[in-house]
Amino acid sequence: MPRLRISLTINGEPRETDVWGGESLLYALRERLDLPGSKNACEQGECGSCSVLLDGVLVCSCLVLAAQADSHEVTTVEGLGAADDLHRVQEAFVAAGAVQCGFCTPGLVVATADLLERVPAPSDDEIREALSGNLCRCTGYQKIFDAVRLAAGIDA
Amino acid sequence: MEVLTPRSLDDALRLKAELPAARFVQGGTDVLVELNFDRSRPAALINLNEVAELRGFLRENGALVLGSGLTYAELMQPELATALPALAEASRTVGSPQIRNRGTIGGNLGTASPAGDALPPLLVESAQVEIASVRGRRALPLAEFLVGPKRNALEPDELVVSIRISPSGSRQTFMKVGPRNAMVIAVCSLALSVDRERGELRAAFGSAGPVTGLVTAPLDEAERFPAAVAAAASPIDDVRGTAAYRRHALRVLTGRALERCLA
Amino acid sequence: MSATRPKIKARPPTRPRLGKIGESVPRSDGTPKVMGEFAYASDLHAADMLWGHTLRSPHAHARIAEIDISQAVGMPGVHAVLTHADVPGRKTYGLEFTDQPVLAIDRVRYFGEPVAVVAAEHPEQARRAAEAIRVVYELLEPVADPERATEMEPLHPDRPTMGHGYRDDPRSNVVRHMVIRHGDPETAGDVTVDGVYEVGSQDQAFLGPESGLAIPDGEGGVDIYVATQWLHVDRDQVAPCLGLTVEQVRVHLAGVGGAFGGREDLSMQIHGALLALHTNRPVKFVYNREESFTGHVHRHPAKIWCEHRATRDGRITCVRMRILLDGGAYASSSTTVTSNAASFALGPYRVDNALIESTSVYTNNPPCGAMRGFGAVQTCFAAEAQMDRLAAELGIDPVELRLLNALAPGDYLPTGQLIDGALPTAEVIRRAAALEPPAPEGFPRDPIRLPGGAGNTTRGAGVHRGVGFAVGFKNICYSEGFDDSCAARVQLYADGSATVHCAATEVGQGVTDVILQVARTELGTDRITLAPHTTATVGSAGSASASRLTWMVSGAVRDACRAALEEQERREGGEVDVERVHHHRPTTPLDPETGQITGERAHVALAVAAMRAVVEVDIDLGLTRVVWVGTAQDVGKAINPQAVHGQIEGGTAQGLGLALMEEIQTRDGRIVNASFTDYLIPTALDMPPVTVVLVEDPEPDAPYGAKGVGEPPAIVSVAAIAAAVRDATGRALTRVPIRADDICL
Ligand SMILES: Cc1cc2nc3c(=O)[nH]c(=O)nc-3n(C[C@H](O)[C@H](O)[C@H](O)COP(=O)(O)OP(=O)(O)OC[C@H]3O[C@@H](n4cnc5c(N)ncnc54)[C@H](O)[C@@H]3O)c2cc1C
Ligand code: FES
Ligand code: FES
Prior knowledge:
Distance between the termini of chain B: 54 Å
Largest sheet of chain B: 5 strands, antiparallel
CATH class of the largest domain in chain A: Alpha Beta
Number of domains of chain A: 2
Strand content of chain B: 25-35%
Structural class of chain A: alpha+beta
Order of helices and strands of chain A: EEHEEEHHHH
Oligomer: heterotrimer
CATH superfamily of the domain at 171-262 in chain B: CO dehydrogenase flavoprotein, C-terminal domain
CATH architecture of the largest domain in chain A: Roll
CATH topology of the domain at 171-262 in chain B: Enolase-like, domain 1
Number of helices of chain B: 11
CATH topology of the largest domain in chain A: Ubiquitin-like (UB roll)
Number of strands of chain A: 5
Structural class of chain B: alpha+beta
Radius of gyration of chain B: 18 Å
Bound molecules: flavin-adenine dinucleotide, FE2/S2 (inorganic) cluster
CATH architecture of the domain at 171-262 in chain B: 2-Layer Sandwich
Shape of chain B: globular
Largest sheet of chain A: 5 strands, mixed
Strand order of the largest sheet of chain B: 4-5-10-6-7
Radius of gyration of chain A: 15 Å
Shape of chain A: elongated
Number of strands of chain B: 14
Distance between the termini of chain A: 52 Å
Order of helices and strands of chain B: EHEHEEEHHHHHHEEHEEEEEEEHH
Helix content of chain B: 25-40%
């Protein structure tokens, strides 16, 4: 059934795969490229669980056609850190207790990393607005805000 | 389903002329939802991301020409926000950062939803929609472009290239009502401008009629304007709100917007 | 075919970390989760895997005249198209009554009811095949109004709910009807307040959609990897429908993306197994968000009629309440919801005389069942509104009124049960009332800190501040004679390290860490490995529900650890392997006629929370922003304080959602907002800071004194936030979620 071939750079590595035209980048990452870290919670852009960086810009990968990512660069949660070398945002999420079921976490980690890249010391309002596209059903967000401040080195 | 990726405007127009049943995809924030939920299976998709002519904006004899591929995030940047403040305010209310990074004004026009948040600010600024096809180019006032709920005036082979505005420089604002404090489709929305130069009040409302509606009045009729805007709307009851509430909210919003812009 | 194991990517064995009981321990699954390497049910993959898809009813009530699959079976990539005729064993299942068809037989009773299932190579092929199945429906009038359900044609003419020891109610469509008669319900008071309250249907809206992978074992059996709340009861429901023994069906926990009650009932388990056995290939299901709204049960919508009588000096003399719960098309856990609604209807107050009538009915609305705080959420909202009305009527401060009537050990529940455990009602009230809310903030402010938020609707015009207070309580563990138990197995090795087996489902609440903390504490070592959660190696743990799991798991793991140490000592070293089953103290059913206890107790223990909420409401537009929440909660003993705070904050967010925005809307039984675009849950801009005080009053009967903590915040927050909005607006607001129209029209 797949009819199209795409080549792209994911987490710094050149990758290729066949896709069906109607498939999202999220589907291709999860089901074809062995990168299930980005999550499929709504596939309608409302939850941010599928957040990735496309050419350095934060997007919902469920709303990007796989074919649109052809020849572009994608960074997923898998590209942020390694088990023995976690990204500071990942470390902060664990330490602050910002993870419960964790389904929202990959998207939030990517969104937070993107925020801190642009705004190294965000205000509480900036944190809330920047994360308003990432739904979490478990935590009530408090510990997520703590994690962002922890990663940014801001005293709460 | 095929995905075609033209590299130039001419290529895009040629492809659309050959495959009028194909669907353009720019930011994909409307189209992908339809695809993911099996609501649409177009013959082919034409990916506009690589068409450089649709990106960015330029100034031409005092007018601003906004590429249809301009994103909400770009509309919020200082240069455009200064020239078109209500459009920037509207952009901040759109979806989430992820949606604003990807969603475009061209897509908002393409979808032509009565809830489209770019539409009211563009309407009060008398925007012209610049359209192209292999047959040539034409321009339409936005009010004529929006022909019905989720229907626009494009022919099957046409594409929106840009939106042309001569910024009025007037005091203006945008407000949107939704049941939560972020990420909502408008229950109703309002853009309002107090154009002292032309002596005119202009308001455009969203989600309160089949299309985004424009209401104007002379400057000295400010007092009656909230009621006039509410009366011009033809809202319905739906899952997001009731007709009665929408009419009421438009009256409140218009009053508050006037206060903001007359202050 | 030999079993293909799902490729569970880099889920490292749960590594021990320092941390004993009472310490805040970072989650043992935290690192894989932040790296995106934790394998959720929807991430599973097996070689040769097919995709399952469910054809669902577009109607809320219809007779099925014909199902024609002939078109679908021959389509590209399609391997199986199955209907009820292909269910080899029992055709129905259910948590308590087997009233729900695996696949609709001759009738559909709710919008979204599964009618057929398909397996194909690609999800798109499966969708196209499902679309090609022709189903001829003859529409029937839906029973959409629960208030009229008992007068309409029975939706389950065989009355599956009769003869189970409940009060048998002859009226049609009654799932359970119970009456609690306590003292003399005719007792008068100096003042009387009454009210009618309504609660909309809430969705659990867990982020990880229903998913799972079924793998045939090549010998007629099947392994099911699924996100669920109770592995063993899933297995016990699945096996008879497949015509298999329970040994032939093994259910394994796959990563769970939240649950909140919504995974107590089956979703894809039987469908996946049917297709896998039929095709002899692994079959994966992943529901999309729209399907998820029809793929699980919801919180019961309720209507509650109340009358509270009190003396002039504020003592409640008598309460009369009538509760109607819309159970939807199938029973699920409606019976327990009915009973909880009644048992906790009065709130944590001393009331000597009461008449409580609680009824759940079948309708053609979406099936309702378990959701965090069930039954108690609905009645707490009504009872606390009544307390505020009473306070206003009497001119007594609402906090004082609550303190005056606060329930305490030594008092009786309306079911006649003596409260003999810990219940620090007065203390949580005092502690919550003492929390200082932040001072009102001036203008101008950024719109995101105003009602209407990012919508930029006000700069201060119309904004009124309001403060609300509420108290809520509920039982911990199962009730009414249900023999609730939890098994744990400990393999203690010669070198002192250990492997712990427990089928408790980690749904995000952190039970994994409770298991590890208890084992570390009891065994005095950090070298503990947690085995996969499965039905294959250990007995049932019971479900992740009723705020019971921390208690039950702590008991089971503690008992097994201690037994293992003793056994090792007896044998003077070497490796031992012991399993222990923990039971809490027994309960007995309530009398079906009087609702009174038939033994010493119907509930094991209780937990209480009090909350103060501050809101700002734009009264002209009816928009609300919650500014701050302060709460004090009775937790017995906090095993992992950080996780306890997380539960309280998360539960508060869900209550905020129900108070202000969350409702499944239906028209003639059809859900009209099955998406995250129209079913709104709180975002980062909707949640206020939460100040949490933990009140540790150890439960004498609970292992380590610990009570469950998940439900009280979800119960009390709805009432507290609604009270604050009433305070800001001066409106009665008798329905949640509160709509803008209710405030400003
Ligand atoms: C979670 C979420 C939240 C949202 N919130 C809002 C909101 O708050 N306010 C709001 O207004 N919208 C909202 N939207 C809708 C959407 O983001 C906007 O309509 C956006 O402007 C669409 O732009 P796009 O580039 O993504 O369009 P696409 O999805 O790429 O295209 C949309 C339509 O326009 C057509 N089209 C695109 N470009 C052109 C062109 N150049 N010429 C002709 N036709 C074209 C396409 O064929 C398609 O029919 C939201 C969407 C999501 C998923
Ligand atoms: S899965 Fe992409 S936003 Fe929810
Ligand atoms: S931790 Fe479960 S959704 Fe955020």
